[in-house]
Amino acid sequence: MDVGGGREDLRRLAVWLSRRREVDEAVAQLTHYGPAASSRVHSHLQALTGLLALETAAFDALREGAPDVPQLPLPALVRDEHTVVSLAAGRERRARQRT
């Protein structure tokens, strides 16, 4: 990818991340101190809808400008079976050490 295309891609990413942060900050502020959160969110639905629309448009621009590359699952959603610790293996190892 040329330098201009790389810069444009970075710009689209920066715009999307900025919009995403705006949404996160607004929601965090509205939902702070639980009991009144629902009424605060309800009284700001129009503004939240606008922020979400801007974030969606920024993400769509990022997606449209993205190169066609193989897609991977999100790391947080991948269950790694190799991280499971077996208690049986530890028990067997201790049993061998005792004998």
Could you walk me through the main structural features you see in this protein, from its secondary elements to its overall organization?
The protein has 99 residues and is mainly α. Helix content is 68%, strand content 0%. It contains 4 helices and no strands. It has helices at 3-30, 37-42, 45-65, 87-98. Helix 1 (3-30) runs antiparallel to helix 3 (45-65). The radius of gyration is 23 Å and the shape is flat. The mean pLDDT is 87.
Highlighted features:
4 helices; 99 residues
Tell me the layout of helices and strands.
Elements: H1 3-30, H2 37-42, H3 45-65, H4 87-98
Helix pairs in contact: 1-3
User: Approximately how much helix is present in the residues?
Assistant: 55-70%
Number-wise, the strands total 0
* Whole-angstrom Rg: 23 Å
Please tell me the overall pLDDT: 87
Count of helical regions: 4
Major sheet summary line: none
Head-to-tail CA distance between termini: 63 Å
Model regions low in confidence, pLDDT < 50 over at least 5 residues: none
Q: What's the SSE pattern?
A: HHHH
Shape: flat
Beta-strand level of the residues, as a percent range? under 5%
Structural class per helix/strand content? mainly alpha
